[in-house]
Here is the input.
Amino acid sequence: MIAVPIAVLWFGGFVLAVLDGTRKPAAWLSVAVLTSAILSTMALGITVYQDGPMSLAVGGWSLGVGITLRVDMLSIVFALLSQGVLLAALIYEVVNGVGARIYPAVVLFMGLGLTGLVFTGDAFNFYVFFEISMISAYVLVSYGESPRQFRAAFVFITVNLLGSVFFLIGISAIYHTTGFLDMYRIRDQMPLVQENPAILSATIIFVAFSIKLGLFPFHFWLPAVYTGTRPSVAAILSGALANIGTYGLIRFGADIFPRELRQAAPVLIALGTASIIYGAIQALSRHATNEVLAYSAIGQVGYILIALGIGGPAGYAAAVLYTVLNSTNKALLFLSGSLRGWLAGAAFAIGAFSVAGVPPASGFLGKMALFQVGIAEDRPMLVALIFLGGALSFVYMFQLYRRRTAEIEAHGSSPWGAQVVVVMLALVILGIGVWPDPLLNLVERAALSLPEAQVP
Amino acid sequence: MPALNPQKHAGMLQSGARIILLPSWVIAIAIMLKGYADVGDGFSAGVIAALGVLLQGLAFGTDELEQITLSRIAPILSFVGLGLALLTAFVPILFGENLFTHWPGINEHAVHFGVLEFITPVVFDIGVFLIVYGFCVGGLHAIAREEVRQVRLRDRGRYLRSTTRGGSLADESGEVRL
Amino acid sequence: MILATSLAIAAMFAAGAYLMLKRDLIRLIAGMILIGNAANLFIMASGLRRGAAPILPLDEPTADPLVQAMVLTAIVISFATAALALALVYRVYISHYSVDLSRLSAAEEQQAERDEPMTEDLRESVRDDTDGEASPDGRHAREAAIR
Here is the structure.
């Protein structure tokens, strides 16, 4: 049951790698494969929601010997989020006409990597799936093959390869200090490990995921890459691939290194603050749509880091909620940002207002959750900061929106198919904003699946 | 990279490459099969087999690689390998078994043929062997073939090209980024 | 043994980091490969134990098999990444006859100038420019307009 989404994506990717993805039937086949993966993940999610986490040791070995796959609500939320964003980007590209024959296969392989890494319960297996999605991303970034894309690809590969190496070093450090690779066992063993090695491994892993996320001191690669790639690729990178960073921080931070996470809370909050302010100020000073969005992405992950730093069930729930909203917003903005026409303009406006935190678009939910956490924890400075960040994001998103509407009046319209795709995505975001209860419930359950959140 | 001008290369390399082709495959298959009772696996076997074939390209030029069937079909082999490996991993699910379950199971009797054991992990390892072999040979061959094609094209029309394409890149304006 | 391994890791990492700062793409990739292998050596160091191959029945002390499995996987992954990166370099070489990043930037700027009237960045900067704001993009735009 657990392996079904992975199997669907893997076989789908394999078949599509042989077919020519630029032809319509093959491209729609990839959409069908991704849709069926989402459906099977949903079915799995319903089971997990009702019966609690599931685990499976590969090959029928006993738990602890074989590699384990483990699924809880946190995994399900992240898997559905990544697959959903990939589906939107894939349909967008298919409707627009796929430019490279391997594009659909690579998107499926990336879906496989992202699904696999949230489903695995083994630290090294996490790295393997992580690399599957990274290698797909390397291919995707060079998609388009102009000098711009090539340079973006080199920046991306160099920086992210360093990130992967850091992660690998972190994992082998964990293995050396605890003697296990299974995450549950590492978690049980971690309190016995001396403080210094534990802090060192936690820091290395934090740096690795921060590079993927593009947090403030590690952000330097992000604007060059997001502005250099095609819109659907930028949407995939910011909406799906960046989830690796958030999931990794939550899983490794709250699950494996809870003690170190609490010790590092002031640092996390400081870094998050720096990220928010830096991203917002840079976004204010930029003009190109993609550049504003890239810096906005740097700012938005700051909120996630702050929520993690606050911790506790409410903090983790806020972090997960913020990730879901941020990924869908960024996907919508990158996709609709390159289109012309009033439908796409409306979709872009919804995305922009969502990032700015204006109801009824869904973005205000995340800010609300953070406000509540800040007030409950009695941290007035944080509340002020979130308010300031929200105000700044409102200003830069409004500037962007004003510029875009001026443009839309002046120019023709893009193909209807692509516009319909972004409008559907915008409707999802509006729908979440209007009727947030199911998502809030899911996110709460996801946060509760972390052991640290269960202890009051 | 593979030789563009095979005549320049010593006969030693060429005869050595010819002699080594078959033994490299024998050793590769031996390493793959003995992996069930001793040290060895499909990955290292694939690398050894690929090195044996690529040596032919190095000694005789890329055109020689086209002649060798095993190198021509390398991309297909890697896909076959991936399919085999995936099937052994995921087919057990269809029978209600666990992922990667192998037949016969742990501590069960397996059919022996000499030291060979017939168990499904062997199929998986053959898949890995084919992927590695296909990837090494197919990838390097594709790049080498393209390289040779480009060089030949350039040699043929060098003076035509130099005025248009090379010229436009020559002036280095603009600041350096990254 | 630990000292020797850590010195080797340090040397490889340093050499890799040095190469990664180069503008030449081939050196960049060589640096990436070196750093990747330094990480592999680090994994080996995390389970450094002498012994026989761990195959049943276990009679004598065995080496840690998990570390070797991890290193093998990591080697395959860095192999794939390096192959991909080299293929990219090759595409760059075919289209620009150079493997220098500064050349690539120059080509990118030229193409940007060629395309610029079509792209949105420029339209915005042109408009902002007329508003009286001076931005780097705006300067390019003006240059392009003069031409």
Remarks:
- The domain at 1-99 of chain C is CATH 1.10.287.3510 (Helix Hairpins).
